[in-house]
């Protein structure tokens, strides 16, 4: 028999009997600042419902463990296994890249760093209709082309030397058109990493081109 046991904080330890939710598990994993970023003004920390610790750190890790146990049972003569999965431990493992990356400050921790949430070329911008476009133009060839398409006449180096000023300019530019208008503009440009941010309900409509993802 193969048994998978999924808990929030693990089978042992002082938190083993404590009730928890996604927010608790993500916080304890140490990854919360990565998901929140420096751009969050009103609420310092947030987490998507169930998707990180529950589905990825818990269910996904349990599925991997079960498959590994099945393989082990085949080669060791039919013995069973107990799979012990902690959502906190699983999520911490998934985020281990963050803890070992040598240039972590310039990637996550410092304001305006790549994945801080407020990097001028890697963030979401509000459009004139109150919707958003997701911009992921980290590479020089992408953000150089981005400035051309947006008709923002600044040196490319300003993105890193004057990030606050560049952000202010880009925010103003994106608010001059609706999300649909920006979608058309970027559809006509070379393939830039710009996509709309759909609200939850119309996601199936906007993403229908992704190999029939929603059917």
TrEMBL record:
One of its GO terms (biological process) is bile acid metabolic process. SUPFAM superfamilies: CoA-transferase family III (CaiB/BaiF). It comes from the Eukaryota. The keyword Transmembrane helix applies. InterPro entries: CoA-transferase_III (IPR050509), CoA-Trfase_fam_III (IPR003673), CoA-Trfase_III_dom3_sf (IPR044855), CoA-Trfase_III_dom_1_sf (IPR023606). One of its GO terms (cellular component) is mitochondrion. The chain crosses the membrane at residues 51-70. Keywords: Membrane, Transmembrane, Transmembrane helix. Belongs to the CoA-transferase III family. This is Uncharacterized protein. It comes from Anisakis simplex (Herring worm).
């Amino acid at each position: 028999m193969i048994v998978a046991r999924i808990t929030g904080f693990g089978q042992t330890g002082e938190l083993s009997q404590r009730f928890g939710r996604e927010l608790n598990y993500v916080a304890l994993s140490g990854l919360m600042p990565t998901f929140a970023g420096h751009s969050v003004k009103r609420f310092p920390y947030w987490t998507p419902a169930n998707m990180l610790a529950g589905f990825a750190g818990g269910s996904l890790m349990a599925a991997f463990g079960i498959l590994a146990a099945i393989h082990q049972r085949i080669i060791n003569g039919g013995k069973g296994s107990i799979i012990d999965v902690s959502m906190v431990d699983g999520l911490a493992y998934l985020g281990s890249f963050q803890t070992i990356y040598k240039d972590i400050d310039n990637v996550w921790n410092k304001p305006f760093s790549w994945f801080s949430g407020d990097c001028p070329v890697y963030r979401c911008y509000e459009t004139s209709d109150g919707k958003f476009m997701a911009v992921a133009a980290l590479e020089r060839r992408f953000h150089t082309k981005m400035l051309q398409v947006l008709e923002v006449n600044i040196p490319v180096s300003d993105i890193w030397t004057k990030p606050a000023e560049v952000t202010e300019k880009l925010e103003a530019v994106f608010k001059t058109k609706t999300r649909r208008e920006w979608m058309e503009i970027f559809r006509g440009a070379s393939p830039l990493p710009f996509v709309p941010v759909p609200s939850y309900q119309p996601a199936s409509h906007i993403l229908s081109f992704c190999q029939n993802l929603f059917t």
